[in-house]
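User: Hey, my collaborator sent me this sequence without any context and asked if I could get a structure. I don't really work with proteins. Can you help?
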Amino acid sequence: MKAVRFHGKEDLRLESIPEPECGAGQIKVKPAWCGICGSDLHEYMGGPSLCPTTPHPITGEQVPLTFGHEFSGVIEEIGEGVSDKFAVGDRVCIQPIIYDGECGACKEGYINCCYKNGFVGLSGWGGGLSEHIVVPEYAVYKLPDNVGLDVAALVEPLAVGWHAVNMSPFKPSDSVLILGGGPIGLAVIQALRARNCRQIIVSEVSAMRKEYAKDFGAHVVLDPTKDDIVARCRELADGQGVNITFDAAGVQPGLDQAIHALRAHGTHVNIAIWEKRCSIFPNDLVFREKRYLGVATYVKGDFQEVIDAISDGRLDMCKKMITKRIELDEVVEQGFKALIKDKDNQVKILVRASGQI
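Assistant: No problem. I've predicted the 3D structure and written it out in structure-token form, which is a compact way to encode the shape of the chain:
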């Protein structure tokens, strides 16, 4: 079968590899659509960092690895022992966290914090940028009839934003600042809008992403190169500042602005994966009893909540995140390189993993 394999920095290859076999407790899926994630892009530009270069403790695999963890597909085969809620032909999306289920974090329900964790499409077990994949039953989520396979490939990034809001102390009466209007920032906007947030403020430089932020439900969009973010947040939020800041950008100036834009007892929620160390002056948190909260991907319930919210219309804008669709053999030139060279005009590029769907 064909698969897009990561061999190292700027080295992605469309290769022919053996088709995986479906074992006990597993489900074989034919990927339909797969999104290119920022994590994939970082690995391509400067990795391997997330992808293991020694055998992963759960998968036993290492680079080269098949890419793709934001994807949907159709069930091709059911392994022995899989529950009868699944059938061949079911349309599904994949929750890609790999976890051992045995460590303390897993036993407490924090699969995203598993001490050995990894991701389908980054750590082994194949990936969505292939013609076939086999995954454990726990990774498979059925789709309602009114959720398309293209939109289903957005469930994973939407779940990141959804989980961040779930983890925060958000109340509908809050004022919120979001740093960054890329895919995760837009996911946070949609999650807040679905919960009837009173005021959503977004800080973003790109002209196109500013327009997306407005369309997706931001009440105010600021430009950090032109606006005084701290002063404007205080002005917009009762003279005190916002209740919560969500960092989907991961840059030092944004972090500084976000912490100072918070009111007393406000919470800064970090979603971003940082490329280098940042600095925080603890007194900026201590004297107003502000909080810094790190969040990682999502937990079991988040995927189903996002699927339900797409189905019932609370996440009705999500399909507009798709800015380009390409084929498997176009992944490098029209996918990864387009995101590097044309970042300001792209939100989510989807790859058609199977030409039959």
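In plain terms: The longest strand covers residues 26-35. You can pass these tokens on to your collaborator as they are.
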